[in-house]
Design a protein that fits this description.
Number of helices: 10
Strand content: 25-35%
Largest sheet: 6 strands, parallel
Structural class: alpha/beta
CATH superfamily of the largest domain: Glycoside hydrolase/deacetylase
Number of strands: 30
Bound molecules: zinc ion
Radius of gyration: 61 Å
Number of domains: 4
Helix content: 10-25%
Shape: rod-shaped
CATH class of the largest domain: Alpha Beta
Length: 488
């Protein structure tokens, strides 16, 4: 019964079962094939980076690829691929800038695979800047003069003209960029300034003393420099010594070397006043006759009269064109002194400098005519004059001191004949002189030998004087000066 039942409907059940079984086996086969197919899939992988930057011009070392069939490495480092073909396409060309593709194509049996690499050929090397050597020293105040430079690039060649130069304190910075944007920069330290100053040596030291009235003569100096050698000739001397005015005068010596280093030294010159001995008063009653403003047409006659009486007098002379008479004055033993060259108050009292210019000029004229270097002098108008106040207030205060410091002895008077004033005849001149001399033991009498009446009065004066016990003497440096009170 079971058979019948089982024999009755077993056909359908078995078919289904067999179909399922067949499907199961088929699926197993598919899985097995897929498993093995998959297992043998060809794989190619890049060694190294997928995207590479490469230096222009350098040989390209290809990192290569790794090829595997799953589970089996077909290409290994250092080993030839025995069963696979690898084809590499596309360079790279290292002489060509820009992106380039490299393709690796692999074939193995019926499998194929491909992989790509990007190689960018570029320049990564900076240019080189070369500086020409600069001198060690440059002038302190001079500009630095460029010694030169060059810039060279591996790709662009000479790019010196693209160099930018920037002057900064103590240095210069040179920069350049090549066409691929690679920068280069170098610095030049500026040459140092030479700081060693030249040396000045003063002969006789930095202090020098001279007596007033002595012309200062430069005692000498030397200058040398570590680089320039002897610089004596380049020394500049500033300052002036006023020989007639006591005081200390700085003389400034300076010299500058070729790198602008300056040395300055000072020498102080002290002008020391002339020391005067005490006044020597003459023995006995004495008249010093003095004649100003000549010589003139009457002076020779005057000399004759003085000679006849054995009398000596003093002549304060001007440059009046009677040089021969000046010589006669000296020859006959009279004293000669300076009055002035021009007797022009406005000129000689314009300034101390103007006065001394006139004074020394007249001194020279007298010396040239007579051979006497006289230091006796009389101020035009006397030291008490007020006329100088018009041109130079206070000048007599200066001059009355400075002429003596400078070695000149000035003489005023204590008897005025008034021959330049109201006395216009010999008798009046004589009377004025006698009136002035009376009751004085020592007198300096003021007269002018350019007036005939004054000269005519002299014989009577000499007679009267000798009868009254006076000697007539010439002045010398130590004679009493009878200085007036200075009023300007
Ligand atoms: Zn005068």
């Amino acid at each position: 019964m079971g058979e019948r039942e089982s024999g009755g409907k077993p056909g359908l059940f078995q078919v289904v079962w067999k179909v399922l079984l067949a499907l199961l086996v088929l699926a197993g086969i598919v899985c097995w094939v897929l498993f093995w197919w998959n297992r043998f899939t060809l794989t190619v992988e890049l060694e190294g980076e997928e995207s590479v930057l490469h230096q222009y011009g350098e040989p390209f070392q290809d990192p290569g690829v790794r090829v595997t069939l799953r589970g089996t490495e077909l290409l290994m480092e250092g080993r030839e691929l025995s069963h696979a073909d690898i084809m590499v396409f596309g360079g790279p060309n290292v002489e060509q800038l820009g992106r380039q593709n490299v393709t690796y194509h692999v074939r193995f049996l019926f499998w194929e695979a491909e992989v790509h690499r990007t190689v960018t050929v570029t320049d990564m090397i900076s240019p080189v800047i070369t500086l020409t050597k600069a001198p060690d020293f440059i002038p302190a105040r001079g500009p630095y003069i460029e010694s030169g430079y060059q810039a060279y690039d591996n790709l662009d060649g000479d790019i010196t003209d693209r160099v930018k130069r920037q002057e900064l304190p103590g240095k210069i910075v040179y920069t350049v960029v090549d066409s691929c944007g690679n920068p280069a920069s170098v610095e030049r330290k500026l040459p140092v300034f030479k700081l060693v100053e030249p040396e000045i040596t003063l002969s006789g030291g930095d202090y020098w003393a001279i007596p007033t009235g002595t012309v200062f003569e430069e005692p000498g100096y030397k200058a040398k420099d570590d680089m320039d050698g002897d610089l004596t000739e380049k020394v500049q001397v500033e300052g002036e010594v006023s020989w007639w005015q006591t005081g200390t005068y700085p003389l400034v010596y300076s010299v500058t070397d070729s790198t602008d280093n300056t040395t300055t030294v000072t020498r102080n010159v002290e002008v020391i006043p002339r020391e005067w001995p005490d006044t020597q008063w003459p023995e006995g009653k004495t008249i010093y006759l003095t004649f100003d403003d000549g010589p003139g047409p009457y002076t020779q006659a005057l000399l004759n009269v003085l000679g006849a009486y054995g009398a000596k007098a003093t002549f304060f002379v001007t440059d009046s064109g009677y040089g021969n008479v000046m010589r006669e004055i000296v020859a006959q033993g009279h004293s000669i002194g300076i009055h002035t060259v021009t007797h022009d108050y406005g000129k000689i009292y314009a300034s101390p400098e103007a006065f001394y210019e006139d004074l020394t000029h007249m001194q020279q004229i007298i010396f040239d005519e007579t051979g006497v270097w006289t230091t006796l002098m009389r101020f035009p108008g006397g030291s008490s004059n007020l006329v100088s106040k018009r041109t130079s207030p206070g000048i007599m205060t200066t001059l009355s001191t400075s002429v003596r410091d400078a070695g000149y002895q000035y003489f005023d008077w204590n008897v005025d004949s008034d021959d330049a004033g109201a006395a216009h005849d010999a008798q009046k001149v004589f009377e004025n002189v006698v009136a002035g001399v009376q009751n004085k033991a020592v007198c300096i009498v003021l007269q002018h030998d350019i007036h005939s009446y004054s000269v005519e009065a002299v014989e009577n004066i000499l007679q009267w004087g000798q009868e009254n016990g006076y000697r007539f003497l010439g002045l010398n440096e130590n004679s009493p000066g009878f200085h007036h009170d200075v009023m300007n």
